[in-house]
Design goal:
Length: about 400
């Protein structure tokens, strides 16, 4: 056991580390990451899963695996060194130091701990928020009020890890998993958690287990190279995606190849400005509702630290879409973008479609008449489409 170390950050989050499908330099998300020269890291969800796996193994066997290996949602099998090993009466605790790679992540270096205890028969895996992990206190998030702020994908990863360990060692799968993060409550003051009603600490996040780093200059350059690769391959349709879930939706909806996928992250403006000078006939923008709502409001940098969801703007869209004053007021007071969608859906107002159209207008404005047709898809955290608009070119602007 090392008292301070964690495993090296992944050198490439994509299984296609040698390039595109043909083994060349390739495009798409993995090609962009390689060309950026930035080192990816691990999410808090991956670290919590590694710690849970080690603690669960020790609970069943009395021994901590070090390093501990886990399976990420895309099938990668990274290993993590343990920074904490504690075996007590009816419990085991393991800890992993988070390495966020080259991403300016406030949780870089944080010690993520998991304490696993036996649970009542039939309880399954029950999650608890330990010190430094927040609790949900307001509606609108993908978790119920009162739940630990451990997001759905990390929960699934930990459940699967517990099931795997239990099957291997003949233990039961009924356990209590308590996740804690050293100094998490103080670190959380530098995040949006307090404004979102997540109190007491940080959220355990991640959809792939891997943190893709964003240096503005390096990532914008990688976006440009992604467009160049797509154009050189003769692609007539590209998708600007905010993350891996958006990419999956783009592939499912349109059957786009990897080199037609532009991992724009938060840099919508970079995609649009480069396509203005180097056009591709069709651009589909795909992203989470909250990020697309920022684009709809005219923001070209979608990062949470530089722009946030404007519920007053969304209330105006809801009113323009047929919502009454009561609905508009509820939207304006909503806690999250997801909550505004749910409120409007209950009243028959297609807020997702209205946001998609407004985002398309922002995009066309930035393109300034370039021969690019634009459509937009808004998705929720699970990848379900909650808003869309038809492709429109510069001559057909609303």
């Amino acid at each position: 056991m090392s008292p301070t170390s964690s495993s090296p950050a992944p050198q490439d989050p994509s299984p296609a580390s040698a390039g595109g499908p043909d083994g060349g330099s390739g495009g798409g998300r993995s090609g962009q990451l390689r060309s950026s020269g930035l080192r990816p890291g691990w999410t808090t969800g991956a670290c919590a899963t590694a710690a849970t796996t080690a603690a669960c193994t020790a609970l069943f066997t009395g021994e901590f695996p070090d390093p501990v290996t886990i399976t990420l949602p895309k099938g990668q099998r990274p290993s993590f060194a343990l920074a904490v090993e504690e075996l007590g009466d009816g419990r085991a605790t393991a800890g992993v130091v988070k390495d966020a790679g080259d991403d300016p992540d406030v949780t870089h270096g944080a010690l993520v701990r998991a304490t696993v205890r036996p649970g009542p028969a039939g309880s399954g895996v029950v999650f608890r928020a330990g010190p430094g992990v927040g609790t949900v206190t307001r509606p609108g998030l993908p978790l119920e009020v009162g739940e630990p702020a451990i997001n759905p994908v990390p929960r699934r990863m930990m459940r699967e890890a517990v099931a795997e360990v239990a099957a291997r060692h003949g233990g039961g799968g009924d356990v209590e998993v308590e996740i804690s993060i050293d100094d998490g409550e103080e670190i959380a003051r530098h995040t949006w958690n307090p404004r979102l009603g997540i109190l007491g600490g940080l959220s355990v996040l991640g959809t792939t287990g891997i943190v893709v780093p964003y240096s503005c200059s390096a990532w914008i350059d990688s976006i440009r190279r992604g467009v160049d690769v797509a154009r050189a391959a003769g692609r007539t349709h590209v998708a600007g995606c905010t993350g891996s879930t958006s990419e999956k939706v783009a592939v499912a909806e349109y059957g786009l190849p990897e080199d037609a996928l532009l991992d724009m992250g938060d840099f919508a403006g970079a995609v649009l400005k480069y396509l203005r000078r180097h056009p591709v006939p069709r651009l589909t923008v795909v992203g989470g509702f909250a990020k697309i709502s920022k684009l709809a409001a005219g923001h070209l940098d979608l990062h949470s630290s530089r722009s946030r969801v404007d519920t007053t703007f969304l209330a105006g869209l809801a009113a323009a879409g047929g919502g009454d004053e009561e609905l508009a007021a509820a939207v304006a007071a909503a806690n999250t973008g997801l909550e505004t969608v749910q409120l409007c859906a209950g009243r028959g107002v297609p807020l997702g479609d209205l946001v998609a159209r407004a985002a398309r207008e922002t995009a066309l404005g930035v393109l300034r008449g370039a021969p690019v047709t634009v459509d937009v898809l808004c998705i929720d955290r699970a990848g379900a489409v909650v808003g869309r608009c038809e492709p429109t070119g510069p001559a057909g602007r609303d």
